[in-house]
Design goal:
Helix content is 58%, strand content 8%. It has 236 residues and is α+β, with helices and mostly antiparallel strands. A hairpin with an 8-residue loop joins strand 3 and strand 4. The structure holds glutathione (GSH).
């Protein structure tokens, strides 16, 4: 059984989408990051980095449960555990890793900073916003160009698609529309229709609708997120 410590954000969705796609049984422990649950000692004992998601695998065949943080590492572990969504041949595996790292090192951090500076900070600094949104736009262009020639990022649908999808899906929140990227948009829509993906992003918080611009009080969430960033500065 997998214990999943998460909340409704792109990095959290990466883990829950993977678990749903792989049909691995799991229990969700909701971590309220706005309230600072991730800074509490009990959570820091699971992840000293104070970030969701975390999984604990109580049935990995050893006496000691496995505790794992970092969403990319979690996805690789789960894919290897179930033998799906990560090719076993070195070439296919390397290519999936490549696009997974593209999300971990590019899409995620750049969209994260675009969110912070365009939505959360009360001071709107045009050069900084342009820098991060411009970088997100450039990365979207790279994905779009690749998806013009490929149905999915690598061969069949894989954890690389799940990881990038979970982030690109909130392009509204980062302030970078995908209208000029038809192939990226096609891929977003196709993956968004998968039942396991829909189940993986479903929760009662309404965050999914908010972050994707479908409904909700955008200003209130942006303000709460700014408090979260400030809380992090004070705590750390
Ligand atoms: N590199 C980490 C990043 C995790 C991360 O930043 N999680 C965010 C939510 S998407 C979080 O826990 N934020 C809480 C905070 O900033 O205090 C991963 O991929 O798991």
């Amino acid at each position: 059984m997998i214990e999943l410590y998460t909340c409704s954000t792109p990095n959290g969705w990466k883990a829950s989408i993977a678990l749903e796609e792989m049909a691995i049984p799991y229990t969700v422990h909701y971590i309220d990051i706005m309230a600072g649950d991730q800074k509490q000692a009990a959570f820091l004992a699971l992840n000293p980095n104070g970030r969701i998601p975390v999984i604990v695998d109580t049935g990995d065949g050893t006496d000691e449960p496995l505790t794992l943080f970092e969403s990319g590492a979690i996805m690789i572990y789960l894919a290897e555990k179930c033998g799906r969504f990560l090719p076993s041949d070195p070439r296919g595996r390397a290519e999936v890793m490549q696009w997974l790292m593209f999300q971990m090192s590019g899409i995620g951090p750049m969209m994260g900073q675009a969110n912070i500076f365009s939505r959360y900070f009360p001071e709107k600094i045009p050069t900084v916003i342009d820098r991060f949104q411009g970088e997100v736009r450039r990365l979207f262009g790279v994905l779009d160009g690749h998806l013009a020639e490929n149905e999915y990022l690598v061969g069949d649908y894989s954890i690389a698609d799940m990881a990038n999808w979970a982030w690109v899906r909130i392009h509204f929140w980062a302030g970078v529309p995908v209208d000029d990227f038809p192939h990226l948009k096609r891929w977003l829509d196709v993956i968004g229709e998968r039942p396991a993906v829909r189940a993986g992003v479903k929760d009662d918080s309404g965050n999914f609708e908010l972050l994707t611009g479908q409904a909700g009080d955008v200003e209130a969430l942006a303000s709460a997120a700014f408090d979260l960033v400030e809380m992090g500065h004070k705590h750390d």
